[in-house]
Amino acid sequence: MSQHRRRTPQHKVGQRALLVGVLVAGLGVGLGLWASGDDGDSGPTGSAGRQPSGSASSRAAEESRSAAEPTPSPTKSYALSSTPRTIPAVRSHTPARGPGWRPVRGQRVVVGDADLADEARLLARELGLSYAGEKDDVLAGDVRLSLNDDEGADPESYSLTVRGGRVNISGAADAGVFYGTRTLKQTVHAGGTAPEGVVRDEPAKPVRGFMLDIARKHFTAGWIEDRVRELGDLKFNQLGLHFSDDQAFRIQSDSHPEVVSDPHLTKAEVRRIVALAAERHITVVPEIDSPGHLGAVIAAHPDLQLRNTSGTATRGAIDISKDESHQIVDDLLNEFAEVFPGGQWHLGGDEYQALTVSDPEASFPQLAAAARQEFGAGATVEDLATGWVNDRAATMRVHDKTVRAWNDGFFRDTSVTADKDIQVAYWTGKEIGARLPVEYLSAGRQVINYNDEFLYYVLGQPQTFVYPTGQRIFEQWTPRVLRGTEAVPAKYDGQILGGSFAVWCDLANSQTQDQVAAGIRMPLRATVEKLWNPGTPQGSWAEFRALADRLG
């Protein structure tokens, strides 16, 4: 996420009332205490007395009766609770004794901060509860969402406390609170009960993404919205949209309507997708790939096609020696920066076909001349291509975007180097002059894992691609496995921001939308499990699969 809402720290005024009840069971007498502070985490973990009533006067009367004339009441004994089973698994759970919590129509979702109204309304709608807004009173069955004062905490962290027939979800920012609501939603799915105790949870990796190629294959807005809901419930936080390629340009453009293909998404549809994603704390990461993969743009502007000395066109490649090429791509970048207000942008940069020939300078003398003019006598076409990516990064920085580019858009032994703040989207080791992931990491670069060995779902399985399975990801992949099946040294783990599962539509008609959704269902769940939790998953693949089937 580019930004998270936090509450300004405030001094706590005091704790709520302490209820004392004398519990009689068999031949012994036990004293049971229940206490609840503003954060919902104080007091014993068990709960056995009557629930507090809703008004201040009734609570005072209750306290008076309890202090003056304790009235024994029967109670049940409970085994220690079990850890809730969710995807991804929660990081820690402190068990307690008590009945847990399950939603009952008429119960409330309340907030301690108005900034959490969206999260509360969504949860209330999903669980059939009533959203009651900001409330200080306490009713039986309440779910309370609140922001805590821990300014140093991960904004995606949260705690979920089930105690005394109520639930409190708190976090340092609204994103963490939202993830707590996803955990609660999963635990009560299909009549389940949220177990007594305290969940403390946070992700291992800040980037948990899914990328969709909507350029080669048109996906309807409704289908994409369904994926957004699925991703949100699984605690993904990025949705990549690759919407421009050789085959098509799939979003309405006002600056260059001539490049747009049919069918395509309208801007109104895109804005609805972006808004839905924002509600679920998902940043949409657009990609207009350049200087390669621009066939749809070039089709409308054939004068910008890159051609070699014999006049042969280079597929998908724009002639980056021409000022008009820079202008049209920047026009599109500037236009869509406003359509996608999130703080992330993918520049592409991969597979520029001018660099796949044996002697780019001889084949494309116009590129060689432009390189020398801009960067000096010894400059190469690789330098010119690197300068192109740097220029596009500068365009997007004006819009406060953090940018990334595919690893084969970075080159070794060049006089021009890619800007240090451009993140490496590492997907392959098959490019010409392939560079090992450690080369980027040892240079201090941040890397996002798109490993095509595990995370590429390529329609039709062309070349050497095979459809990835959730089991293989679950059992063999980790964020440190950036290329092939080998993990990079653990010392680089902090530079690996996370990963992204990707759907590419090379043979677009090989599967329908519904088949794609079914095919990626378990790979998505396995991917986020490995991005949220470090280390080896507890339990087997069969158990994980059964849990996924139970949760729906």
Automatic annotation (TrEMBL):
<keyword id="KW-0812">Transmembrane</keyword>
<comment type="similarity">
    <text>Belongs to the glycosyl hydrolase 20 family.</text>
</comment>
<feature type="domain" description="Beta-hexosaminidase bacterial type N-terminal">
    <location>
        <begin position="84"/>
        <end position="201"/>
    </location>
</feature>
<dbReference type="InterPro" id="IPR052764">
    <property type="entry name" value="GH20_Enzymes"/>
</dbReference>
<dbReference type="Pfam" id="PF00728">
    <property type="entry name" value="Glyco_hydro_20"/>
</dbReference>
<feature type="region of interest" description="Disordered">
    <location>
        <begin position="38"/>
        <end position="104"/>
    </location>
</feature>
<dbReference type="InterPro" id="IPR015883">
    <property type="entry name" value="Glyco_hydro_20_cat"/>
</dbReference>
<feature type="compositionally biased region" description="Polar residues">
    <location>
        <begin position="74"/>
        <end position="85"/>
    </location>
</feature>
<dbReference type="GO" id="GO:0004563">
    <property type="term" value="F:beta-N-acetylhexosaminidase activity"/>
</dbReference>
<dbReference type="Pfam" id="PF02838">
    <property type="entry name" value="Glyco_hydro_20b"/>
</dbReference>
<dbReference type="InterPro" id="IPR015882">
    <property type="entry name" value="HEX_bac_N"/>
</dbReference>
<feature type="domain" description="Glycoside hydrolase family 20 catalytic">
    <location>
        <begin position="208"/>
        <end position="532"/>
    </location>
</feature>
<dbReference type="InterPro" id="IPR025705">
    <property type="entry name" value="Beta_hexosaminidase_sua/sub"/>
</dbReference>
<feature type="transmembrane region" description="Helical">
    <location>
        <begin position="16"/>
        <end position="35"/>
    </location>
</feature>
<dbReference type="InterPro" id="IPR017853">
    <property type="entry name" value="GH"/>
</dbReference>
<keyword id="KW-0378">Hydrolase</keyword>
<keyword id="KW-0326">Glycosidase</keyword>
<dbReference type="InterPro" id="IPR029018">
    <property type="entry name" value="Hex-like_dom2"/>
</dbReference>
<keyword id="KW-1133">Transmembrane helix</keyword>
<feature type="active site" description="Proton donor">
    <location>
        <position position="351"/>
    </location>
</feature>
<protein>
    <submittedName>
        <fullName>Secreted hydrolase</fullName>
    </submittedName>
</protein>
<dbReference type="GO" id="GO:0005975">
    <property type="term" value="P:carbohydrate metabolic process"/>
</dbReference>
<feature type="compositionally biased region" description="Low complexity">
    <location>
        <begin position="38"/>
        <end position="59"/>
    </location>
</feature>
<keyword id="KW-0472">Membrane</keyword>
